[in-house]
Amino acid sequence: MKVYDGSETDSSQEEEPERVKVGIAEYEVTTDSATLTTSGLGSCVGVGLYDTKTGAAGLVHVMLPVAEEMDDGKPAKFADTGTELLIEELEATGSRRRDLVAKIAGGSDMLDFSEGGSGIGDRNIDKVKETLEGYNISLVGEDVGGDHGRSVQLKSVDGDFLVKSANRDDRTL
């Protein structure tokens, strides 16, 4: 019988990657082994980008569709400028657009009482997709719409995008 005295390392226990929280209207980029997380995605959209060659990853939590004339100094707040910013930040780490893939979640119609036309969630989704298309970045997974909130985790070790929701099973994109 072998007694473990703490002086040896246990190879069966792998270190957990660092968890990095991304707040509303914020973004994070990592080139290390990390899990980027955000929560509170109602009409907001979480955009995850993953570099299939280098393993770099980025996540932005956007609130509104377009910045236009609302320059409040927070480009990550908007679907158009937030997605562009995330792409540019990943390029600054050495990523190339052709190696990036995108996964998105959110864009629910939870509290939107607008009459006629699409709600804020739909407009956020459309603007993110339009921006990704403009940069020729493939959207390879999405969990959008509906009437429920979500939280997401983007794992930089493999690009898995875990979507958690209160009213259904977790889903990995």
UniProtKB/TrEMBL annotation:
Keyword Hydrolase: yes
Xref: Gene3D superfamilies: 3.30.1330.200
Keyword Hydrolase appears in the UniProt entry: yes
One GO MF term: protein-glutamine glutaminase activity
SUPFAM superfamilies named in the record: CNF1/YfiH-like putative cysteine hydrolases
One Pfam family named in its UniProt record: CheD
Keyword terms: Chemotaxis, Hydrolase
Function: Probably deamidates glutamine residues to glutamate on methyl-accepting chemotaxis receptors (MCPs), playing an important role in chemotaxis.
Family in the record: Belongs to the CheD family.
Official protein name in the record: Probable chemoreceptor glutamine deamidase CheD
Native organism: Halovenus rubra
